[in-house]
Design brief:
The chain is α/β, with parallel strands linked by helices and about 250 residues long. The chain has a single domain, classed as P-loop containing nucleotide triphosphate hydrolases (Rossmann fold, 3-Layer(aba) Sandwich), CATH 3.40.50.300. About 40% of the residues lie in helices and about 25% in strands. The strands form 2 sheets. Strands 6-7-8-3-9-10 form a 6-stranded mixed beta sheet, with helices on both faces. Strand 7, helix 6 and strand 8 form a beta-alpha-beta unit. Helix 3 packs parallel to helix 5 and helix 4 packs antiparallel against helix 5. The chain is globular and about 50 Å long.
């Protein structure tokens, strides 16, 4: 299968001296190609930090991170930006939409940044995404004219528009009602069935149950790595992890 992204002996600390907090503690893990991976754990377990380092948005204290066959910890800012733009899509809780651009221009932004126009197949796929996400009547609206849930759906369409190898999603259903949330999770499932690799941080057992694989973090380490789970199995596991962390 190969790995779309991986980290080896990854450690991330914040602060110095007695005030040092270790967010990630010697983690080695990979995101498999064409697989939908959920990353779960209690608050403070390091899941968002892990995703940010995997995505090249943050640097580790020690250890190495790869996207595909490229060691991203060794890249300069310019090369890292180019690699992220060509290989990865991002869905974050802060939508990072450009306020002066309408919905359509926000969705097409990755193409503009890359200095190209979408091909005909890409245009068709973008139309499908817009329709599936219920945005077809919103294309000329600016972000401030949209609800939080609509802005989140625009961010999802933008992240998937270029069909990137790798999609990083941080709580992608956090601002959505349950019906739209399920639609988004089905779109992410479809993207992984199509060969894209999805890494999603979530605290929602129902969202995680859509994934092929669930990684559980606790105290900056991976405490379990499971194949597809039911929401009930995930909830039970989360509860055990929290009780062990509290003990």
């Amino acid at each position: 299968l190969g790995l779309a992204a991986r980290v080896t002996h990854l450690t991330k600390s914040f602060g110095t001296g007695a005030g040092t907090v270790t967010a990630l503690d010697d983690i080695s893990v990979g995101i498999r190609r064409g697989e939908f991976t959920a990353i779960m754990g209690p608050s403070g377990s390091g899941k968002s930090t892990l995703m940010h380092i995997m995505a090249g948005l943050d640097a580790p204290t020690s250890g190495t991170a790869w996207i595909g066959d490229t060691d991203i910890t060794a890249l300069n800012d310019r090369d890292l930006t180019l690699l992220r733009r060509r290989k990865a899509g991002f869905i974050f809780q802060a939508f990072n939409l450009v306020p002066t651009l309408d919905v359509k221009a926000n969705i097409l932004l990755p193409f503009d940044l890359d200095g190209r126009k979408p091909t005909t197949p890409e245009q068709h796929r973008i139309q499908d995404l817009v329709y599936d996400l219920g945005l077809e009547k919103r294309l000329t609206h600016r972000p401030h004219e949209l609800s939080g849930g609509q802005q989140q759906r625009v961010a999802i369409a933008r992240a998937l528009a270029t069909e990137p190898d790798l999609v990083f999603a941080d709580e992608p259903t956090g601002n959505l009602d349950s019906r739209t949330g399920r639609e988004v999770l089905r779109i992410l499932q479809g993207a992984s069935a199509n060969g894209q690799s999805i890494a999603m941080v979530t605290h929602d057992p129902i969202a995680a149950s859509f994934a092929d694989r669930v990684l559980f973090l606790g105290d900056g380490r991976i405490v379990a790595d499971k194949p597809r789970q039911t929401p009930e199995e995930i909830s039970a596991h989360m509860l055990r992890t929290e009780q062990e962390m509290a003990a």
